[in-house]
Amino acid sequence: MPEQLYDLRNKRVWVAGQSGMVGSAILRRLGREGCHLLRSSHAEVDLTSWEQTEAWMAAARPQAVFMAAAKVGGIHANDSYPADFLHQNLMIEANVVEAARRHGVEKLLFLGSSCIYPRLAPQPIPEDALLTGPLEPTNQWYAIAKIAGVMLCQAYRRQHGCDFISAMPTNLYGPGDNFDPLGSHVIPALMLKADRARREGAAFMEVWGSGRPRREFLHVDDLADAALRLMTHYSDESTINIGAGEDLSIRALAELVADVVGFEGELRFDASKPDGTPRKLLDIGRIRALGWSPTIPLAEGLAQTYEWFLQNRPETREHPRRSRAPAVALPLSAAFAQR
Fold first, then answer.
1. Domain total for the chain?
2. Residue 248 lies in a domain
3. Domain that holds residue 237
4. What's the pTM value of the predicted model, to 2 decimals?
5. Do residues 276 and 337 lie in contact, with contact meaning Cβ atoms separated by under 8 Å?
6. 289 near 230, Cβ under 8 Å?
7. Rg for the chain (alpha carbons), in Å?
8. What's the pLDDT tens digit per position in 172-210?
9. Max alpha carbon distance in the chain (Å)?
10. NAD-dependent epimerase/dehydratase domain: from which residue to which, for each copy (predicted)?
11. What is the CATH classification number for the domain harbouring 37?
12. What CA–CA distance (Å, rounded) separates 185 from 177?
């Protein structure tokens, strides 16, 4: 295993975006590292504002930063708010990276997204596929902003000697995921639909797309472990992939989600709706060489995520199952999106 390059013990550590799914998972993981965790919220600091970001960084003086803050969403959200996705993400990453340089942050990890890779990249996708072809149009605004974040870290390393690194996680899921019907990604969107269909006794549920695209999914707690491994054992300007190492079709995913939720009806795929990228599987050979591998099987992670959803949705009490009824139209089809 490569030697440890950076020790987090007794360091002042800030997770930007710590209220989100990824940030909260990293906070949980850092709780075992003997470091001093800096707490922040959007009410305290708006990271799209340079003045607020710089002032907070000057006062808090973090030594290590996990950059997990971002405006995220699925196909519907990206298509509806392209300017917001591009502008807000550019501002967040530019403000945090520059403030980190000005205030002497020792190490920064920028978390991007696998959607930065070309739509038709080779599979599994190696890190050097970046900027070798056109992006997937359904999330190009977010992807361009994340590519800019990768380049920022590379530029600050070259010009200022900053130990800033970047990583590209695959599709993430887990406790704390976004279950907003109009902004969620594929797993929470499918869970919402399957849960409603089960409770209403629907004969079928509709899924956007053909079901043929293949996707890779990583539990957010595995991502948190990977982020810690990179922060302590990696220092290079090249971005590095974080993935599960295997993928499955959207059809197989929908069947697995239905099984976890307990929906026994038919799945109907609407091929008139967009599929997004045909396949997206990351090559994770480089991070495996650093001693990290995913540990949470998809079925186990989905069951854990659904349990979290049941405990945290507005209606926290389970509804009794109804007898089988005629098929119902589920208005959540707009939420189905996968990067």
1. 1
2. no
3. 12-174+216-242
4. 0.90
5. yes
6. no
7. 20
8. 999 999 898 776 789 999 999 999 999 999 999 999 899
9. 66
10. 14-243
11. 3.40.50.720
12. 9
Which residue type does 57 have? Answer: M
Annotated binding site for substrate: 193, 208, 215, 275
The set of catalytic residues is 142
* Average pLDDT of every residue of the chain: 91
The answer to whether position 107 is within a domain reads: yes
Backbone φ and ψ for 72, nearest 5 degrees, come out as: -125, 160
Enumerate the β-bridge partners of residue 208.
270
74 in any annotated domain: yes
DSSP string, 205-244: EEEES-S--EE-EEEHHHHHHHHHHHHHH---SS-EEE--
> What Cα–Cα distance (Å) separates residue 68 from each residue in 6, 213, 227, 234, 306?
19, 27, 10, 18, 23
What is the residue type of 113? S
3-state secondary structure (DSSP) of residue 112: coil
Average pLDDT across each block of 10 residues of the chain; the chain has 339 residues. List them in order. 92 96 97 96 94 97 97 79 95 98 98 94 97 92 96 98 98 92 84 96 95 97 98 98 97 98 97 88 98 98 97 62 32 34
121 occurs within a structural domain? yes
Residue-wise pLDDT tens digits, 101-154: 999 999 999 999 999 999 999 999 999 999 999 998 888 999 999 999 999 999
Name residue 194's amino acid.
A
Q: CA nearest 252: which of 304, 308, 197, 187?
A: 187
Amino acid at site 54: E
Residues 75 and 80: their CA atoms lie apart, in Å, by: 8
DSSP string, 254-317: HHHHHHHHT--SEEEEETTS---SSEE-B--HHHHTTT------HHHHHHHHHHHHHHHSSS-S
Token pair recorded at residue 269: 């795929």
